[in-house]
Amino acid sequence: RNPVFAPDDRLLPPGHDPATGIYYDGPAVAPVAGTLHLDALLADFCFRSPADRANYLGLLVTAVLMPRFVGSKPLALFHGNQPGLGKTVLAQVLAILRDGRPTRTLSYNPNDEEFEKALGAKVKAGLTTIVVDNAKADGRRGGGGIDSACLERCVTDEVLSFRLLGASEEIRAENSHLFCVTANAPVVSRDLLTRSLVVRLHHDGDPARRAFACDDPEGYALEHRHELLGELVGMVAAWLAAGKPLDAAAKSRFNKRGWGPTVGGVLLANGVVGFLADAAAVGDELDPERAEFARLVAALAEEVGRDWTAAEVLALADRRTIVVADGEGPSRAVRFGVAAARFLGEPFDLGGGLTGTLRRVRGRAGQAYRVEVAASGAAANGPAGDPASG
Asked: 68 vs 386, which has greater pLDDT?
């Protein structure tokens, strides 16, 4: 229902295209130079950084390049530091530009079987922008966080498949959908986070006191949908005219079919910089396992130069209610060793201009752990110990 470019770079006209099998059910949209309406639409949103605004524009560009990225585009995770910042509005604007109308949202359900049924019902209803609104799950202090194997499949499978409620049939559809989750200060499972593009909103103070030049972004998107789509199509046309440059710096944990460099290249060709610039930092910020290890490294750093056995590390973690490995006895130490291997040699911010780096060393009683403290920005490279040891 929105104009798209075919993989051979043609902007498809309304109707059926025999070469691709795509049927575009919408009006003809011609490329428009500039981003007058896009800038007016986004002017009042409190994006945390220019990179977050660029990430959102990247989502809009993805929609008009959808045939290139069937089953190869990330989950859109709208993250705010408090309610009332416009996360759901941004998701609805995306739906309006894609389908010409706001979408019906659904709630997150930690029961993945029930959640799958709800997602399947939205796909069966013909929605192409699926919004999981105001997801709540406590992933800190050992909770599960936002975690769904079904939602993970929805991001990467070329064909969506859901069990039909009360029947042995399946709901199946080509995965040209965009899946969105909105949440306040969420903790997200690592598997889902590696499949996500994060758009952060941030405001200090009462959001209700903010003044807006555009007090109804959804209404603006509906009224000016044709112009907005023309500007998005124009951005891709400018990229094609520039020779389809790729953005080598647009790297994320999700990059199937060159999604990141391609979309980043479109943005760069139109003067938009910063796409995915904060991907690594944002991923770490929302990663529950990394958050707990950051607390652990800070606790270990209180005794600089000390070598800790796995049992001593776990005892300290228990005293500080830091969750880094479950279970009891020797098997718990093994699980801790496996989890710690991911973070060996990585500097964690300790505050005060210092970083702490977890190392695995050989102590008097065998394998041990040590935290090295250095000034922020100092080289923290060097051997990370033996990652294969349990």
From this structure: 68
